[in-house]
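Re: the pair you flagged

First of the two:
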Amino acid sequence: MDIKPDVAVRPPDDDGLRKVVIDGKSKGKVWSHRELQKVLRRAGVPPKADIDWQGGDRSVWPAHALGRRLTGAVMALGFLATAGMCTWIGMKDSFDALTFAGRVTGFLFLLMAVVEVIAFVAGFDYWRKRTMAPSGPALLLGALVEIFVGATLLLLFLANEGRPTYVLCLLLWIAFIGCGTWSLWVLCRQRVWKALRNPGRIAVGAVVSTVLVTTNLAYTQIYLPSISRPLMQGIAEIGTPSLNKAGTKMFLRVRLHLKNSGEVPVYILGSIYWIHVKLASDPNDAYKLIKPGELVIPPGRELAPGEDISTDVVAEIENPEDVDYEAVAARVEAYAFRQDRMKLDTSFTNGKWRGKLNEEGKEDDPPSPIRDKREYFRYQSTISQSSELLNLTRGRERVTVWWMYRPLPALYVEVASPGEKKPFTYHEQPWGQVDAVDRYGLARISGSMVQTPYAQLLKEAQAKRPK
């Protein structure tokens, strides 16, 4: 005679699960009658066995399978998307960020990606059998990280005045905040922290950690970029002149220097020098330009701390004994970016004349400050931020340098979004481009003008004139 097993199904608990007990031994908890049948089959219980229904018959299953699965699926999707975003940022910044703080931030995002993956896996247990006690707290931590990631990226986007081209990312970060908040509300209603021994202490630790991480991100990504400027010096030195045998030309050697006296490496975006003579007969102290040029060719060159770029140029003065000059003057000017704030594309060195740009239909991309038949050479490239975190929250930008040759040599610099078509004006030079100065340490190096009396130079040249 077969002995029938004693089967009991206990009342639903707070989560809607009903414990199955066979011959006094627990066989786990089930969500539905279908799962109950699977447990009975594995235990070898005949289909027609008597079941002691406690706290409700076979129709009482408070946890509806469809709603539970949909809830778990939405949470899993949020965790997976957050993990993907954190992995993308972390993998790039951990090894490619330009600063140590940026790389530390990258590893932090990788750690948060691991937390999100653990939460994703824990969801399969929590929304099914709940055999592992830590699965609920893992989901809670995943929801908190999801909110933190979304809020951090959104705040950085707003603080950096991110570009409209990243509107899809903006919507995704808002979705992180919304999905994480909803997940947190669902999990708090189910009191998932009950599985923890000291939930209060863990909560305090989580709050303190979040504050420290947020402070670090604010310090490295917002505060540090706003302080300190590169220290650059532009110096011109007028050397000893000489005359040709006929005395019809005076050759004047001028040494030009560009030195990085600061503590951070820089990119030289563009440079220009002028050599003038001051007209003695002009009551307004007018100057006549005798030689302009570029000091750093091609631009985009890196200049390390303490490094000096020097070059000698020779200016010619026709009929030096017949001219009425009071002095000879020289000056250097340049523009530089901090190398630890951005990455300059290699295409920047490939400048083009205005005529070539006109043939390609790119003369006014962006709209230039030169309107008539002036001649200029243009350098242009995109700018990558110092980290992928900033690339996502700030967007890529483009730097354009116009080196004007005629009628008056000058240097113009503009930093803007690649798609921005706002006309550029002289007033938007670096001293007016506040964003570029704050973000990239854009600096204008304006060397002081050096002057030497012309009579002194002519006397020195005549003394060395070949016989």
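Second of the two:
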Amino acid sequence: MLAISRLLIGFIAALHAYIAYFEMFAWEATGPRVFSTFPAELFAQTTDLAANQGIYNAFLAAGLIWALTIADRVWQRNIATCFLLFVMVAGIVGAVTVSPRILMIQTVPALITALLLWRAARQ
């Protein structure tokens, strides 16, 4: 169970690293494909805003990667839980403000991972 949760933490970290890259460096190129319901002219106008969002996603990825490097299992679980909660909240806000699909992309995987992580701690 612990190995699966660590693998999922790594996956979520990689997802947020990709989101950070796309928001910070490929917003105008990738944004219109990802957010196809938004007007195309919106992306050039919102590059700075997207880059700001990207740095937050980079922090989420960094925190999850940091959690994977902590040797003490209790601290590893606590730090991972903290950053998984951040991901869940970001997913809920994104679902409410941008697209309900974000809930399935961010919140649900983070919730499942946190539950598996805490279940592994009980074994």
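The chain has one domain: 2-32+41-122.

-B.
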